[in-house]
Amino acid sequence: MTAVRIDRWLWAARFFKTRSMAKSAVEGGKVHLDGNRVKPSKELRPGQTLQIRRGDLVQTVVIQALSQQRGPATVAQTLYEETPESIELRELRKSTQRMERAGLRVPSSRPDKKDRRALAQLRDLDQGWQQTPDP
Prior knowledge:
Blueprint: E1 4-5, H1 6-12, H2 19-27, E2 31-33, E3 36-37, E4 43-44, E5 49-54, E6 57-63, H3 73-76, E7 80-82, H4 84-101, H5 113-131
Antiparallel strand pairs: 1-4, 2-3, 2-5, 5-6, 6-7
């Protein structure tokens, strides 16, 4: 097998649940082959690079093998290799989401006067709490 349609490969590699979802994603510009937008009938070859956008997640993968049939997940994972930059960005996004769910946000700017007073008040409250002896 020398070439496979991009929508069929995306389905076989388990990036999308159905082939029609893969086709819609390619038509919608969510999948780029070597940096260019493509049609669902574009044929893939090993060694080419795909950028796949699913929601907020963008994965960059290098095609290792071709398949037209959807198999087990372990086999699907051997069809591609994710780039180290893509893995790093995905992990960073995951940790950011975890922090936001916990209620921690990175401030967009330095604290203003009101925020600094609130921080000082919290700091004083914390110090007063630590100095109080336990009964």
